[in-house]
User: Fold this.
Amino acid sequence: MRHLSYLAVLAGCLGCALWLEPVLKVNVLRRGRRLLLTLLPVIVVFVLWDLAAIAAGHWTFDPAQTTGVEFPGGLPLDEVLFFVVVPVCAILGFEAVRAVVRRPAGDGDE
Assistant:
């Protein structure tokens, strides 16, 4: 089970944030295009950063705590999922606070 540690942490993060979508109706997941356009630069930049750090020997991952699925360059699937899950949780949190305090984002789709 230890090889699922990273995924368990990510699942915990999602579990703590996903309820905000239906309860506060923040509509983050319903705006798929907007979410994708937000996530794509984050994923690209941090995947490249990790690949450079792995290649330079500055960054490693404990194979005992990851799924063992790796992309070329030694980047684990778990790490790529981190670059999706953490920003999604942050956006959900931001939108939840915005909904509770009733502050418009200024994006004109309210």
Remarks:
- Strands lie at 70-71, 75-76.
